[in-house]
């Protein structure tokens, strides 16, 4: 049965979903208690269950809505002007900042943690990343190829590699370390990542 068809919409639906998102993104699926969710949403458990008949359904709806919001806007200017090296450095710096802000950081953590329990949602996350971030980035790289600044290659693959490098260096570190990267460290990582890309494809 489709996810949305099992959810009851109502006056407090957004309030309940927002409260559930706060707890699920903080504690994950197993760590989130219905009591905590009800307190966060400021509703009774009976009201909670009137919208979502079970916890799994509530979690999946939180993932769906958070994913839509997190990837709603591009983290970089798709019409980035200027020579490829300078333009790429700015694009990578913008993406670096975007990856480290909420709700993307906690969403990434929860998706990884719950991939075995919710494989369909993990695939949706990966597909959304490809459609809304990797594909526009590949198109930007294509424009540099057309201008003769970057050599012809599989730009979907290289865009995916570029995003993966940033996720591995920044998001994973932020999730595993208790300290956030400093602005200087973010810029250094972004610059090194852009240089690595240019060394391979310029």
From TrEMBL:
Known DNA-binding region: 33-52
Record keywords, A-Z: DNA-binding, Transcription, Transcription regulation
HTH tetR-type domain ranges (all copies): 10-70
Lineage top rank: taxon: Bacteria
Pfam families: TetR_C_7 (PF14246), TetR_N (PF00440)
GO molecular function, a single term: transcription cis-regulatory region binding
Protein name as annotated: TetR/AcrR family transcriptional regulator
Organism encoding this protein: Paracoccus liaowanqingii
